[in-house]
TBC1 domain family member 13
Amino acid sequence: MQNGMETAKYTRGRSREGELPKGRSLESRNTAAPLAAAPEMASRRAWLEDFRHMLSSEAIDFERLRTRCFQGCPDGEGIRATCWKILLGYLPPDTSSWEAVLESKRALYHQLVKETIINPHEDEESDSGEVVDHPLNPNPESSWNRFFVDNQVLLQIDHDTRRLYPDLSFFQQPTPYPRASYSAGMEALKKRVERSSLPSQRVGTTRMGIINMKSTAKYSSLEKYYLPLKEGEEAHWEVVERILFVHAKCNKGIGYVQVLIAQC
């Protein structure tokens, strides 16, 4: 009897399948989700507009920007990249000086690239045509010796950057701003440690005397999805490779560790 009363109370509190609660129409039920999403969309627009306003000011409020970024930063319109530059001290709070600062920083980076990436062929001959350096030179200060030492670090960097986020096609796509010196004939970093292999086949003979030849070449499952780059182009992962290589050369005490690739 008690179980029957409890069941009756339970079923009385529920509406039958397909019924709507009192005071609610079918139209109100269908529009509930869009109405609930409207305030969220409005707050997101206000959040994005707040970042636009902060970054367009003549003087950036550093503390306010840091607090807002701690709560989340927009991905689009280059806002995230600009915020990182400000928070890391790459850009000053005075927005009127940004253009001059960026030009100066880029010139400094290009100078670092020129100084750190060694081209040993430049020092092979003197002005008189005499051979002064060669790959077998035992002098530790020779350009060729430093070139081979650098390649040991570069080989590790190249191995990590080539497989950087393989699920994202971004890093395999060409960058709109390739290094200008590549078009002038300077060898790309990836060419210094690129490996080449001769094609080979496995030969087998069946009982019928039929010879089967099977290729032993192995390719990455992602290679077929990426088109080869044209002459003078470079992928985004090559830009990351160059940044990490320059950092390793300028910071001998740190060198290169794999955790640095996540910060790029």
Notes: The first helix runs from residue 2 to 12. Residues 28 and 237 are 51 Å apart (CA to CA).
